[in-house]
Hints:
The protein is mainly α. It is built from 11 helices and no strands. It is elongated.
Amino acid sequence: MPPAFTAEEKTRIARQLLDSGYELFTRKGLRKTSLEELVAPAGMAKSSFYQFFDSKEDLYLELMLRESGTIKKKVIDDALHAETDTREALRRFLHATLDVLAANPLWRRLTTHPEEMTAVARKADPQRTAAMSDNPATALLHYVTEKRRDGHLVDADPDVIVGVLQTVLLVPLHAERLGDPASYRKILDLLVDLVAAGLTR
Length: 201
């Protein structure tokens, strides 16, 4: 039977699990992270993990939920929705998201490995997963759908438009292939301008 923890121990262990989960998931990914690795920093048995989280996926979801609101504020509320001109709004969204991806390894991992979000959604508690419905990706799709309906965006399926925007967000993964590092930011800025201009009417 797993040991009983005091309230203070539970707080400390939960923090350690979140910290080790963040580090391991961003470095190795969900599938390659073992339960043994997650519990090792807390110095506890694997069976005790389930007093804190239902599964690895549940821990991953908790980490995403903790960051989702802050990221949504940066890229949706303070960038996309802060501008009335659709072209400028898309530019601001792309720049803000690129900045988040540069600074936030977990969100970068989600962008480059969407199958991990699918795995989380499949295994985690549906009610907790539903809390992710108000995330940056969903908000972006709503925005694009509305702007396309109102004639501000090109006549393409909203999922395709979102896909084009997401393609820009994958460019930093190949930054080293774009030649001189001093030119990288200029390349990115021009790409953002071209995509925003090409998608808007």
